Amino acid sequence: MPYPLSLLMQHGCNIGASGSGKSNFLTSTFLQTMRHGIPVWIFDRDKQDYRHLYRINPEIMVLDAVDHLIVNPLEVHAPIGPKQHLIMFVTIFCKTNNLLDGAEALLLKAVNELYLERGIFDGGTDYPTLADLLEKLKGYVIKGGSRPAGFRDSIITRLESYLLTSPRTYSFRRGFPIDKLAEMTFVLEVKGLSERHARFVMTFLLYLLFLYRIATNQRGTGLRNLIGIDEGAWAAPPGYNDNIGHPPLASILSMARETGIGILFANQSLHVNESIFVNSRLKMVMRLGSGNDIDRARKMMALSKEQADYIPKLDVGQAIVRIPKVDPFLIRTPRIPLE
Ligand SMILES: Nc1ncnc2c1ncn2[C@@H]1O[C@H](COP(=O)(O)OP(=O)(O)OP(=O)(O)O)[C@@H](O)[C@H]1O
Ligand SMILES: [Mg+2]
Question: Is the bond into 248 cis (omega within 30 degrees of 0)?
Answer without folding.
Answer: no
